[in-house]
Design a protein that fits this description.
By secondary structure, the chain is mostly helical. The protein is built from 4 helices and no strands. The protein has a domain at about 1-60: Arc Repressor Mutant, subunit A. It starts with 17 loop residues before the first helix and ends in a 36-residue tail after the last helix.
Length: about 100
């Protein structure tokens, strides 16, 4: 999951705290102490960081990679066929 840029409830920007929060929690600090020291006071913003889980790496394991088709060379000028001759594209003489 991508970390939301703003809190869903109050709209405060929270994504800027994610890297610091993740680093400090993985080093063994309590999440509540980290949130307090980062200055995140509202419980709506706190739950955004507490409940966030990055599963994008697991998701990408199951995504099929599309093969890129080989590029097709454009025909040279002498190989370009002429457009079909018909009534399309001709003006009436009376309208001129």
């Amino acid at each position: 999951m991508l970390i939301p840029v703003r809190c869903f409830t109050c709209g405060a920007p929270i994504s800027r705290y994610w890297d610091e929060y993740k680093k400090r929690v993985s080093n063994g600090e309590k999440p509540s102490d980290v949130l307090d020291s980062l200055g995140i006071k509202r419980y709506c913003c706190r739950r955004m960081l507490l409940s966030a889980f990055e599963y994008i790496d697991e998701y990408l394991q199951f995504v099929k990679v599309k093969e890129v088709p080989e590029t097709v060379e454009t025909p040279k000028e002498e190989e370009v066929p002429e457009p079909p001759k018909g009534r399309r594209g001709r003006r009436r003489k009376s309208l001129q």
